[in-house]
């Protein structure tokens, strides 16, 4: 068997489109007849789906250039990795998933890349439509560069494209409240609806956690794993939610915010901080970041814990 | 190219159908008009540790403005969810009223325009009277 190492034999995401439509229809109908937990707000749903459609179009604009770069790098590869070898697929499964973990972590912890990823988190809902709220500016943000070392190592461009597609399709079905928890062994190894609900939560305790693509093991390994607890249900969306459903605002608001901040910058330190600091970074620390929000939350937890632990005052 | 165009048009039709289905199903989260306590709780969630002097509730109960020292903490309903933003109290007080709503311009490009319903009973800015505590009175 021969497989074209450059042009993918199939695109998992395109193949999955009918599945996306059927399962969203299914989730809405099941909720309509009160069979599962889910919530759909009409304009929010429209925004999510239009972001998905727009992401496809934006991908067409930058896709060709990115593919050309990947191919060029692969032509200078170190090893020859055959696409037909089973071990090559096992290897790429793990390596691509690890790459995804770091891409995703970078996309949350540094503002320049957050500006491109923020749109995926901008819905206050968590349903299958939210999964399709995909970036328009990923090509510009350059996060695809993180996949180049795989091509340099020798993984054929088509193989990388297929594995990236498989990962995206895997991550689709976990955007649901309909599934509470899966068997323990599955939750231990794989990214699940429960783990990814935490990732989409704006509660301070859940911020910057569960960056996994397919395997949750990377979060456990690198210390970013936070389990979902019944005591604190996730509240979805951004720390500061968007003021309307305008898809242009969803796609570009953080870039505009960066532009505004850069225009008011007075030093190189400020420029670098606004671009590559954590989201919410400000020169005087007047804005909230994940770290300050988490610190405040911990402080409050401690204060409440102490108040509960204190013995009641004796009546006089 | 043709296949691509077919895919895009097909997707657009599917999007319209799914949005239509979501509208038909009427399954947003239930929301109730705000009362003082709910407004305070919602604002406290987004602004933990901010002391709240007093809260003004919009005429339709779909928003509120809390005073926290020199800050106005604005709460506005969006669909079945809520949005909060802070701005200078002075600027909030000076915001224009158009079409029965106070139009608040926040400094944040992620939510630059929020608007809340006003009425004769709940005017903005709050006026002296039994309804408005001293700390809310503009002056
Ligand atoms: Zn994310
Ligand atoms: Zn997600």
Explained architecture:
With 316 residues, chain A is mainly α. Chain A has a domain of 211 residues. Chain A contains 14 helices and no strands. The radius of gyration of chain A is 21 Å and the shape is globular. The model of chain A has no long low-confidence stretch (mean pLDDT 96). With 139 residues, chain B is α+β, with helices and mostly antiparallel strands. Chain B has one domain. Chain B contains 3 helices and 7 strands. A 4-stranded antiparallel beta sheet of chain B has the order 1-2-3-4. In chain B, β2 and β3 form a beta hairpin. Chain B is elongated, with a radius of gyration of 19 Å. The chains are: A mainly alpha (316), B alpha+beta (139). At the A-B interface, α1, α2, α12 and α14 of A face α1 and β4 of B. The structure holds zinc ion (ZN) (2 copies). The site of one zinc ion has 4 residues of chain A, from loops.
End-to-end C-alpha gap of chain B: 64 Å
Please outline the major beta sheet of chain A: none
The number of strands of chain A is 0
Shape of chain A: globular
Helix content of chain B: 25-40%
How would you summarize what this structure contains?
The complex is a heterodimer of chains A (316) and B (139). Chain A is mainly alpha-helical and 316 residues long. Chain A is built from 14 helices and no strands.
Walk me through the topology.
The complex is a heterodimer of chains A (316) and B (139).
Chain A: H1 12-32, H2 42-75, H3 86-109, H4 111-117, H5 128-131, H6 138-141, H7 148-153, H8 157-172, H9 184-189, H10 193-199, H11 217-222, H12 247-263, H13 268-276, H14 290-309
Helix pairs in contact in A: 1-8, 3-4, 3-8, 4-12
Chain B: H1 2-25, H2 36-46, E1 54-57, E2 63-68, E3 71-78, E4 81-88, H3 89-93, E5 97-98, E6 101-105, E7 113-117
Antiparallel strand pairs in B: 1-2, 2-3, 3-4, 5-6, 6-7
Bound molecules: zinc ion (2 copies).
One zinc ion binds at residues 120, 175, 196, 200 of chain A.
Summary tags:
heterodimer; A: 316 residues; mainly alpha; 14 helices; globular; B: 139 residues; alpha+beta; four-stranded antiparallel beta sheet; three-stranded antiparallel beta sheet; 3 helices; 7 strands; 29% helix; binds zinc ion
């Amino acid at each position: 068997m021969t497989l074209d190492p450059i042009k993918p034999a199939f695109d998992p995401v395109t193949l999955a489109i009918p599945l996306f439509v059927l399962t969203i229809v299914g989730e809405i109908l099941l909720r309509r007849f009160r069979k599962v937990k889910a919530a759909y707000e009409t304009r929010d749903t429209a925004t999510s789906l239009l972001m998905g459609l727009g992401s496809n179009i934006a991908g067409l604009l930058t896709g060709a250039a990115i593919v050309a770069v990947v191919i060029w790098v692969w032509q200078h590869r170190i090893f020859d990795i055959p696409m037909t070898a089973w071990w090559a697929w096992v290897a790429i499964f793990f390596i691509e998933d690890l790459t995804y973990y770091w891409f995703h972590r970078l996309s949350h912890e540094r503002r320049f890349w957050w500006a491109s990823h923020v749109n995926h988190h901008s819905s206050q809902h968590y349903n299958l439509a939210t999964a399709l709220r995909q970036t328009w500016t990923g090509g510009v943000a350059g996060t695809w560069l993180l996949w180049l070392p795989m091509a340099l190592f020798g993984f054929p461009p088509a193989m990388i494209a297929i594995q990236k597609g498989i990962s995206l399709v895997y991550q689709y079905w976990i955007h649901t409240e309909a599934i509470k928890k899966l068997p323990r062994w599955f939750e231990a190894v794989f990214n699940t609806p429960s783990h990814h609900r935490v990732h989409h939560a704006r509660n301070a305790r859940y911020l910057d956690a569960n960056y996994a693509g397919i395997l949750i093991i990377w979060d456990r390994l690198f210390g970013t794993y936070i389990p979902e607890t019944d005591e604190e249900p996730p509240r979805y969306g951004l720390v500061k939610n968007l003021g309307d459903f305008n898809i242009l605002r969803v796609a570009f608001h953080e870039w505009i915010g960066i532009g505004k901040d850069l225009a008011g910058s007075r030093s190189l330190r400020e420029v670098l901080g606004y671009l590559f600091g954590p989201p919410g970074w400000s020169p005087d620390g007047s804005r909230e970041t994940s770290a300050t929000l988490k610190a405040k939350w911990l402080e409050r937890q401690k204060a409440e814990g102490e108040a509960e632990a204190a013995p009641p005052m004796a009546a006089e | 190219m043709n296949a691509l165009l077919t895919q895009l048009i097909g997707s657009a039709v599917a999007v319209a159908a799914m949005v239509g289905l979501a509208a038909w199903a009427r399954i947003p989260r239930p929301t109730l008009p705000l009362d003082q306590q709910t407004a305070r709780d919602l604002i406290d969630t987004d602004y933990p540790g901010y002391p709240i002097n007093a809260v003004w509730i919009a005429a339709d109960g779909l928003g509120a403005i809390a005073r926290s020292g020199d800050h106005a903490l604005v709460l506005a309903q969006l669909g079945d969810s809520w949005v909060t933003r802070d701005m200078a109290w002075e600027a909030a007080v000076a915001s224009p009223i158009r079409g029965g709503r106070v139009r608040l311009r926040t400094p944040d490009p992620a939510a630059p325009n929020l608007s809340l319903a006003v009425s004769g009973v709940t005017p903005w800015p709050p006026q002296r009277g039994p309804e408005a505590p001293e700390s809310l009175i503009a002056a």
